[in-house]
Amino acid sequence: MPMSDSGNIDILIDISTAILRAHNGELQFRALEDADESAKRLPFGPFMPDRHRTMEIGLRQWVREQVGVDLAHVEQLYTFADQGRYRGDESDARHVVSVGYLALARAEDAGGGAWDSLYLHFPWEDWRDGRPDVLDATILPALDKWLVENDEAAARVRLAFGRAGAQWDEEFVLERYELLYEAGLIEEAARDGRVKAPPQKSLGAPMQLDHRRILATALGRLRSKLKYRPVLFDLMPDRFTLRALQQTTELVIGTSLHKQNFRRLVEKSGFVEATGETSRARGRPAELFRFRHGNRADRPLAGLRVSGGRKTGRSP
Amino acid sequence: MPMSDSGNIDILIDISTAILRAHNGELQFRALEDADESAKRLPFGPFMPDRHRTMEIGLRQWVREQVGVDLAHVEQLYTFADQGRYRGDESDARHVVSVGYLALARAEDAGGGAWDSLYLHFPWEDWRDGRPDVLDATILPALDKWLVENDEAAARVRLAFGRAGAQWDEEFVLERYELLYEAGLIEEAARDGRVKAPPQKSLGAPMQLDHRRILATALGRLRSKLKYRPVLFDLMPDRFTLRALQQTTELVIGTSLHKQNFRRLVEKSGFVEATGETSRARGRPAELFRFRHGNRADRPLAGLRVSGGRKTGRSP
DNA sequence: TTTATTTATACTCATTTTGAGCATAATTGT
DNA sequence: ACAATTATGCTCAAAATGAGTATAAATAAA
Question: Tell me, which fold does domain B228-291 have in CATH?
Answer without folding.
Answer: Arc Repressor Mutant, subunit A (1.10.10)
